[in-house]
Amino acid sequence: MSSSICGVALCGVVCLSLLAGCGGGVNDSPVTDSPGSSNPDNTGPPPNPAETSSSFAQQCSPDNILADTLLRNATLDTEKRWLRTYFDEAYLWREEVPAVDPGAASFSSGYYYTDLSNYFDALLTPAITESGARRDQFSFMYPTQLWQSVSENATAPSHGIEWLMASPTPPRGLRIAYIEPGSPADVAGFKRGDTLVSIDDVSADAPDADGVDVLNAGLFPEILGVTHNFILQRGGAQLPVQSLTSTNITNTPVPQSRVLTLNSGARAGYIVFNDHVLPAEGQLVTAISNLRNQNVSDLVLDLRYNGGGFLFIAAELATMIAGSTQTAGKTFETLQYNARRSAETQVTPFYGSSCFPINNECSNIQPLPTLNLKRVYVLAQSGTCSASEALINGLRGVDVEVILIGGTTCGKPYGFTAKDNCGISYFPIEFAGINAKGFGDYADGFTPGNGPTQRYVPGCSVPDDLDHALGDPQEGMLAAAMNHISTGLCPAQPFAATARKRSVSPDPNAAPLTLRRNPARNNRLLLPH
């Protein structure tokens, strides 16, 4: 089974397309070696370039417990040969795949999933962006059964908390950014801005790997019904221990929509949009309709925690913001593949009508409400990814002025499809996307302010203000947007609450902790429209 991802027009049949991390471009990409460049000395084709992945598909190792029992009639080497040939067929940077020995010790430990994971990582391009980051930070593999569960159901075990972290090593400064309404954390009284002290008696600043494992188990539960004990700090005071039990959480994609009155007396709409999941379509239609009926003159779209989802929703929202006149007949995003797959270039338009899919088919096709705006304010931070970045890029492609308030977005400009083999779904980056003007170069993210390339977006650098609730006019990012609407000016300096100096430097020798997010929340999902 292969599911396509990232805003491509579906091939005449009704199928669910699972998209992860797309929306960027290959044109003028600021990397050490551009896609399609000549082979570096350390790269090479598969051992036998004439072989195809289909020759080795679903031929699995006897040790691979994720594979169907009837398929476990081959070897781990066969699975590696499938993976290497699939990279040569599908990977966007196929010319840059390093030449590695699949029989090397790091790929032959005897633990099949670890060996495959290490081999997969070794095949990724080593090219870097201008900032020094790996260009391919997003390719991944995942057990197929678990992937289907989190992507199709849009639920996963959770406490309902979105965390932010100042540093992966101590002092980590772990604080709550957002609480899902009705979640265990909400019921327990957890609040945005609370600081984590400990989980299960392990300090939030535990320096050792065992401590980090305990923190990960509590911060990002993977099993339903497991209880963890949390101690938080609020306003400098430590709170009593609270127990949270993980449950399946379905996120509310549009938890806020309201009208704000500016100092000038003008009315601006404010929408918190957290996920491009299917329920978002109806909630966005309702929110935009209400704002249109209240004659708002500006829109502040809060995407700071929106990691992506269905790309058609991004294309619909872009139309609802800009209106049909600016978007009619225009391209929202065009996908580009490697040289072997150049004929697969596909286009996602600006959709002017709703879909409301049922069983992967549109059930309610109606004209979308529109605000007909020439300008939109977007609140963004590092959690703004994938389809959210495509929304920014797509609007700029049709000359809608985007004012970016906050920080640099995650820089997830590429996409891939889920390709399943032997119970594992593989996601090597397969394509890149460009807007109607041919731009998609934001591998280092969109950054507010003036800069030498189009990845710099006019706006203001403002930190996330965890000391105020989302939607509070005094919250730093929203206050900066409201002031900019009225005056065209950015804040003179960051607000004091989040600009406090850290008295202790991060410990470079401590075990790092990485914030995780359900992979389905960082993926774009496409349906026929």
UniProtKB/TrEMBL annotation:
The keyword Protein biosynthesis does not apply. Pfam families: PDZ_6 (PF17820), Pept_S41_N (PF18294), Peptidase_S41 (PF03572). It comes from the Bacteria. Residues 512-529 have a biased composition (Low complexity). The keyword S-adenosyl-L-methionine does not apply. Residues 1-20 form the signal peptide. GO terms for molecular function: endopeptidase activity; serine-type peptidase activity. Keywords: Signal. GO terms for biological process: proteolysis; signal transduction. This is Peptidase S41.
